[in-house]
Design goal:
single chain; about 250 residues; alpha/beta; TIM Barrel; 9 helices; about 15% strand; globular; binds SN-glycerol-1-phosphate
Length: about 250
């Protein structure tokens, strides 16, 4: 079964799904097993790997190890073409549709496509929409694109409709990793009212309650990354899964 189908099944059976983002730079190779085993046992539905920037430090070896230890689908969330790897089950094939920078709308995708084919990866087309979240995020800076104003839900809705008509399989509402404010429930509710394309919400989500509110507003998947990088927060993973699968 494709990863795309597995994700749709999660949404159909649980109402919404929980994806944990792993930034390879944040973990040493010998820490990977423990963290991935925690995710496996947490009730999460998938693991995303990637970042706007990966400095290196053996990222490919870490991704390989993540794939070996994971019992959940592993999905690449690439910040650029250099992050392509055979050590995943699929990738979110992203286009930054909120921006007007051709490199991140179609240029990098053209560079990546033959490599994706060569690696035999499942590409899940995803309309990536950056939403203003209080300060400039790495995703905003690296993509060289302006985020959608936080209080302009109608602009987000119009982008989401365009993404639906262009045939994207997912819409990703992204406040940016480590965002001060996550995407508002109002914006998630507005977007989900207008489109049936499943909506992933991520960036700056700090509590299970917040995740639950975003699911109530219509989010199909919730992504957390930073909040779990503090080892003292690892217990939160199960609470996120419970709140999201409410
Ligand atoms: C970033 O949406 C993800 O692309 C997760 O963000 O690290 O802030 O949880 P956080």
């Amino acid at each position: 079964m494709s990863v795309y189908q597995k994700l749709l099944d999660v949404k159909a059976s649980k109402g919404a799904g929980y994806l944990v983002l792993v930034d390879p730079d944040r973990w040493e190779l010998d820490q990977v097993d423990h963290f991935i085993e925690q995710i496996n046992a947490s009730g999460a539905d998938g693991i995303m790997v990637g970042s706007s920037i990966i400095l290196g430090n053996g990222a490919q070896a870490k991704m390989k190890r993540i794939r070996e230890v994971a019992t959940l689908p592993v999905i690449l969330f690439p910040g650029n073409v250099n992050q392509l790897t055979p050590h995943v089950d699929a990738l979110f094939f992203l286009s930054v549709v909120s921006g007007r920078n051709p490199q991140f709308l179609i240029g990098d995708q053209v560079q990546a496509a033959p490599i994706v084919r060569e690696l035999g990866l499942e590409a899940i087309s995803t309309a990536y929409m950056l939403i203003e979240s209080g300060r400039v995020t790495a995703a905003e800076f690296i993509s060289g694109s302006k985020p959608i104003p936080r209080d302009k839900s109608e602009i987000a809705v119009a982008h989401a409709l365009a993404a639906e008509y262009l045939g994207f399989k997912f819409i990703y509402l992204e406040a940016g990793s480590g965002a001060q404010q996550s995407v508002s429930t109002e914006m998630v509710r507005a977007v989900c009212k207008y489109t049936d394309v499943p909506v992933i919400v991520g960036g700056g989500i700090h509590s299970p309650d917040e995740a639950g509110r975003l699911v109530n507003a219509g989010a199909a998947f919730i992504v957390t990354g930073n909040v779990l990088e503090d080892v003292s927060n690892s217990h939160l993973m199960e609470q996120f899964a419970t709140a999201i699968h409410q």
